[in-house]
C-alpha cells in the first residue's frame, strides 16, 4: 500500500494535471472567457480520480498503523482533500457553484486557476514531507 500511495507516477501525474488545469484556466481567463470548457471539467474529474486513489491508500496506511515521517504530511493531506472538495464542488451543477456564481462577477477561470495551482503546490509539498520528512 505504501508503494501505491507514494508512487512517483501517481504523485507527479496528479501534479502535472493540476498544473495543466491551472494553465488552461489561466489562459481562458486571459482570453476573457467566462466559463471553462466541458473538456476542462473532464480532465479535472480524471485528476480527482487519481487523487482518490492516493487518499484511500493513505487512509488505509494510517488506519493500519503506519505513520508519516513528518506530521505535516497529514496537514498537507487534509488541505489537499479540502482543495479537492472545492474543485469538485465548483464544477457545473456542483454544490459550491451556486453560491459563488450568484455574485455579480464570478471569475470562474481565475478562481479555478488559483485553486489548481495551489493544489499542485500542496501535492508537491506533501510528497516532500512524506518522502523526506521535512
How do the helices and strands follow one another from N- to C-terminus?
A: HHHHHH
Distance linking N and C termini: 22 Å
What's the helical proportion of residues? over 70%
Number of helices: 6
Report strand %. Answer: under 5%
The whole-angstrom Rg is 16 Å
In total, the number of strands is 0
Characterize the biggest β-sheet: none
Q: Which ranges are low-confidence, i.e. pLDDT below 50, for 5 or more consecutive residues?
A: none
The average pLDDT value, as a whole number, equals: 87
Overall shape: it is elongated
Class by alpha and beta content: mainly alpha
| Integer count of domains | 1
Topology:
Blueprint lengths: L1 H4 L2 H23 L7 H26 L8 H18 L7 H5 L6 H25 L2
Description:
With about 130 residues, the protein is mainly α. It has one domain (about 1-130). About 75% of the residues lie in helices and about 0% in strands. The protein has helices spanning about 1-5, 10-30, 40-65, 70-90, 95-100, 110-130. The longest helix has 26 residues, at about 40-65.
Offer a concise description of the structure.
The chain has 134 residues and is mainly alpha-helical.
Descriptors:
134 residues, mainly alpha, elongated
Amino acid at each position: 500500500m505504501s508503494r501505491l500511495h507514494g508512487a512517483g507516477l501517481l504523485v507527479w501525474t496528479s501534479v502535472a494535471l493540476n498544473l495543466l488545469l491551472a494553465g488552461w484556466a489561466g489562459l481562458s481567463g486571459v482570453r476573457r472567457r467566462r466559463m471553462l470548457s466541458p473538456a476542462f471539467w473532464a480532465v479535472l474529474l480524471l485528476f480527482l480520480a487519481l487523487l482518490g486513489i492516493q487518499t484511500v491508500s493513505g487512509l488505509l496506511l494510517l488506519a493500519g498503523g503506519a505513520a508519516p515521517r513528518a506530521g505535516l504530511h497529514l496537514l498537507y493531506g487534509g488541505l489537499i482533500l479540502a482543495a479537492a472538495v472545492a474543485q469538485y464542488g465548483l464544477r457545473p451543477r456542483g454544490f459550491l457553484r451556486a453560491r459563488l456564481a450568484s455574485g455579480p462577477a464570478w471569475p470562474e477561470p481565475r478562481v479555478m486557476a488559483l485553486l489548481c495551482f495551489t493544489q499542485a503546490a500542496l501535492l508537491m509539498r506533501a510528497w516532500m514531507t512524506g518522502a523526506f520528512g521535512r
